[in-house]
Amino acid sequence: MTILIPSYEPDERLLTLIHNLKEEAKGTSILIVDDGSGEQYKPIFDSAAEAGCTVLRHSVNQGKGTALKTGFNYVRQHGSADGVICADSDGQHLPEDILKMTDAVRNNRNHIVLGSRQFTGKVPLRSRFGNSATRMVYALATGKPIQDTQTGLRGYSADMLDWLCRVPGERFEYEMNMLLEAPKAGYDFYEVPIETVYLEDNKSSHFRPLADSARIYFPFLKFVTSSGFSAVVDFVLLFLLQWLTSNLLVSVIGARVISSIFNFTMNRRYVFNEGQGMSFKKSLPRYFSLVAVILIANYALLYLFHESIGIPLFIAKLVTEVVLFAFSYLVQRRFVY
């Protein structure tokens, strides 16, 4: 089993982690990727190499996703057949938790093994909020609840390495893209509870809250944007067709058909990566079947909330749209494209 540690501008905690891993699991293969940290940090990486680690170097910082892919590609060519455990270099993953992952990887082939923090005790507010938000977005996007979507402690069997090198993303968004792409690639998840460790309120983290969060949420934001543009097209066409035909039924149907075609084209081409291999002939009828189901569900939910339960129409409409929006994203990602 290879322990892969991507590292950018590390401190002595990296060397402490290496020492502890060597003590607790003699013969463990440790691979470190220096992601363009610069000359100032060369002594730390040299010490890691002297301790028996393999050190790969990027001349400039390329991001965590690229560093992981560099490591995966190296293991694919030179590593063992057991698999890879990825850990962070900032001391937030305990050696015993890292080593606990090895058995889980061996016993759960075709699974991404996640070291899941429980977020108990003193957790920085930024980290607690970020993990809760990402967990909710991921559950809405995939229908698969995961306790810790942002964990950097992950394990993979060796036969997953080719796929891991193809997952898009260069920085922190890579790890979220991996979780989004895994179900379609046939991989499930197995979570291993680990300790929640934040040192000095996570000051050593290189995660940029705005820029990197935008990258993480980008797949979902693309869907939101596409849906928003489609709603505008539907709205404008409704009034335009009503002005031209003075027939409300024709206007409603015409606007919805054209806006649906627009939405299908946008989602297929830009949101879901040109169909992920799904043919046009298959995705088109699936999409419009979904449109029909959503129309029926829209009426049914509105009737339930407003007529049966007595919720005000505005609130009933809002709740209905939120539920169907999440349902539409989930179905399109998993079955349409």
From TrEMBL:
How does the record say this protein sits in the membrane? Multi-pass membrane protein
Q: Where does it live in the cell?
A: Membrane
What are the UniProt keywords, alphabetically? Membrane, Transferase, Transmembrane, Transmembrane helix
Q: Which residues form the Glycosyltransferase 2-like domain?
A: 2-130
Which residue intervals define the domain GtrA/DPMS transmembrane in the entry? 222-336
| This protein's name | Glycosyl transferase
What CDD domains does this protein's entry cite? DPM_DPG-synthase_like
The answer, when asked if Ribonucleoprotein is one of the entry's keywords, is no
| Pfam annotation, one family | Glycos_transf_2
